What we know:
The complex is a heterodimer. By secondary structure, chain A is mainly α.
Amino acid sequence: xxxxxxxxxxxxxxxxxxxxxxxxxxxxxxxxxxxxxxxxxxxxxxxxxxxxxxxxxxxxxxxxxxxxxxxxxxxxxxxxxxxxxxxxxxxxxxxxxxxxxxxxxxxxxxxxxxxxxxxxxxxxxxxxxxxxxxxxxxxxxxxxxxxxxxxxxxxxxxxxxxxxxxxxxxxxxxxxxxxxxxxxxxxxxxxxxxxxxxxxxxxxxxxxxxxxxxxxxxxxxxxxxxxxxxxxxxxxxxxxxxxxxxxxxxxxxxxxxxxxxxxxxxxxxxxxxxxxxxxxxxxxxxxxxxxxxxxxxxxxxxxxxxxxxxxxxxxxxxxxxxxxxxxxxxxxxxxxxxxxxxxxxxxxxxxxxxxxxxxxxxxxxxxxxxxxxxxxxxxxxxxxxxxxxxxxxxxxxxxxxxxxxxxxxxxxxxxxxxxxxxxxxxxxxxxxxxxxxxxxxxxxxxxxxxxxxxxxxxxxxxxxxxxxxxxxxxxxxxxxxxxxxxxxxxxxxxxxxxxxxxxxxxx
Amino acid sequence: xxxxxxxxxxxxxxxxxxxxxxxxxxxxxxxxxxxxxxxxxxxxxxxxxxxxxxxxxxxxxxxxxxxxxxxxxxxxxxxxxxxxxxxxxxxxxxxxxxxxxxxxxxxxxxxxxxxxxxxxxxxxxxxxxxxxxxxxxxxxxxxxxxxxxxxxxxxxxxxxxxxxxxxxxxxxxxxxxxxxxxxxxxx
Lengths: 507, 187
Ligand code: HEM
Ligand SMILES: [Cu+2]
Ligand SMILES: [Cu+2]
């Protein structure tokens, strides 16, 4: 057996990975700064949203007393806030990686940033002050039934938030696609030349392929959202017109499903682009398998969303079964290509495990474990008993919190470390990773366990039939505190590097 | 064993396998080993085949058991369920208006259902979406269907266990969601 390597130093310099861009001079400096601002905004909101989660668990544990209106306001804000911050952080990171090959627009990203800030303020006002508490997917027709809980202005503020964020993010998506298409053409970016065996290997990096797939799906999702908002407006403004509840459900779940899935893909794109360097291996290339897998994802993501409507028995049965088949299949390319790639990079690499590479590696693991939980729930006979129980937040918190959040935390740390040039503390990195991992899986296990024991999701307090839910919530709180501690240590380390980067610049 | 428990254990098994694989590979990253791309590809094909075979097995086992009603069979008894913020009206007659719904909720006799008969619940809503669920006398969730405005979802069930059944709302419907409930008896 070979001797394992002893690190020559426990505090190595960061490796330089992301710095090089196709942008030049002042524009490059501005773009880098803006990316840091995007990431920092998302990261700063993260602990606040975690605390909302903690408070919700406190209410469910029967430890904290709060009005149901406050609980559901926290729930709505937490859900939309989390989905939002990881989407923007993913997009900002993707923009930086894209800028190594193509030229996304600096001005547009800046405009989107300000629009997003306005949207965030509107969301906070609508939920916390206005008590617009429809849950994160504002299922039709609930927003039109305020029942004295919220006033029309809160509904207006909420839909203004949706519209502003929706328009801004659509433009952002279109701009990235424009940037990609102007260098590669979309066909090449989708690796169709490799797919149809015109060439053996493409010079388009897999990261670009994944982003192209994600961005096209995102556009389709945003389009559904536009139709949805227009239909809501039509009903609110005209007298006598009512929408079709089933159509509205299809629209909102198509949108939600796509948004959540592509956020995952944004994280995966980061891993594809950066993990090889951590493993001290050459870049991944776009071969037939990779091309086939991601093109299959592009198709399957659009069919898998039917699993959100299994309990609407009036939906055509064929679509339901198609939903189950597509939901299983969508996990296959991911498993076969992405997971094996990451594993084979790490295997026998003798790599130095730094905080970002640890988080990338574990993030892919969380993605796989959460994905399996999703596949289990996408089985119609299982969904009959799991739908809208805590199994649902269990699975999506797994591939978010222990999946894409880990990946983005890894990415942001790497970026800040590079900018500052500050040495890394490997031991601290390991402890921090352990803390976050134990916290996350402990917290998640209580969601899973409760879901398997018939505890419904979205209950401010548990009635006697499902009183066991309170006990699981109490255990979860301990683990949430671990996560919160980890997040604060992470932010301290990240923040130090950001400050260092800027003070170094000003000299 | 309840479906939930089987599903949980299946997932747990996969989760443990995934975690073990990541753990072992992480450990093996400490030594230098050259892996040929051909070998990695063989693993890919192997995993592809395993996943596809497993999928087909699971589909073959579960797809024929979907809970959707078929026209071929007629139910033995029909029960009407109407949701409205924040209560379920459960009766042997329909409640198309608010007035009839209130009558059922406030003064209706509790519904008693026979065992071993195919019961059809015709489920709808007078306002927003609700979730009609069946919690058996041991508080195990045994099935559900959405209560959707403008639509009638038909949930069929053959009860074998006698006792008090609880209906909890399983679709978020506003600030009283966690209080919304209904009940019936199986004899
Ligand atoms: C430590 C971190 C977190 C904690 C403690 C936490 C806690 C919670 C809790 C208690 C709920 C309500 C569950 C229920 O009864 O239905 C919830 C819902 C939710 N969480 Fe988290 N969460 C965390 C991280 C995240 C992350 C990273 C995301 C990323 C997107 C996220 C997205 C959501 C969403 C979308 C909902 C559903 C909201 C709704 O039902 O309208 N959470 N979370
Ligand atoms: Cu309800
Ligand atoms: Cu409800």
